[in-house]
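Entry 12.
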Amino acid sequence: MPSPAPQPAFVLIRPQMGENIGGAARAMWNFGLDRMRIVAPRDGWPNGRAVAMASGAGRLLDEAGLFDDTAQALEDCTYVFATTARQRGLTKPIVSPERAMQMAAEKIAEGQKVAVLFGPERAGLENDDIARANAIISVPVNPEFASLNLAQCVLLTAYEWQRARGQIVHHTDEMAKTEWASAMDVEKLAEHYEAQLGEAGFFFPEEKSEGMKINLRNLWSRMPLTRADVQMLHGVLRQMVRWKTRG
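Predicted 3D structure (C-alpha cells):
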C-alpha cells in the first residue's frame, strides 16, 4: 500500500524507456515519494526493464496509476506543476524546483492534491500538456545543454520535496562512541601543555610569553575537540616527557 504521508503525485507523460521509468521510481522512493502515475508509456505496461532498473522500488511500479492521456491523469488534482527546460510562449508562473516544492508542501497542507508533470525523454512535454498546469518548474541548468534525463529530473524534484518538508539534516557529526569535550576538559589540557612547555623553555623570550600562552589557548578553543581527542593529547604529551627523561 502507498505510504500514508501526504505528498504530490509524480506524473510521467508518455515515457519512452523502461529504464527511465524504473530510475524515476527509484529516485522517488529515495526521498519517500510513492505516488507515481504513468501516461501512455511508449513500450506498453508493465515493462520488464523498468522493473529491473527500479531495484528495491518495484512496489511503486506495481502501484502506479496507468492513464491514457494527461487530462485523465490529472482529474483529481487541484494544482499542477509542469517541468520544462524550454520557453513555451505560455503565460504562467515560472518557479525553481525549490520554490515549487515549497508551494506543493503548503498546498498539500491545506488539503489540496498536487501533481508534477515530467515529459518524455526525446522532447519533453508538449504545450498541450503544459497548458493544463498551473505553474512551470524551470531547472537552472546550463543553457547550452539544458536537457535533463527523466530520472535525474525526478530525483532533483524529489530531493527538493524532502527539503521543503524540513527533513534534510544539513550538518551532523558522528561521534564514534565519544562526546564533545567540555570547557573544563579543554582548560585542563591547556594547563597541562602550558606547564610542560614552560618547563621546556618554550615561552621565550619572557616579554612574549603571555602572548604566546594566549595564542596557544586560542588554538585549543578553535579546535572542535572531543573527550577522546583531549585524552589522546594528554597521552601524547606525557609520553613525550617520559621519552625525554628516560635516559
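Annotation: The mean pLDDT is 91. The longest strand covers residues 9-13.
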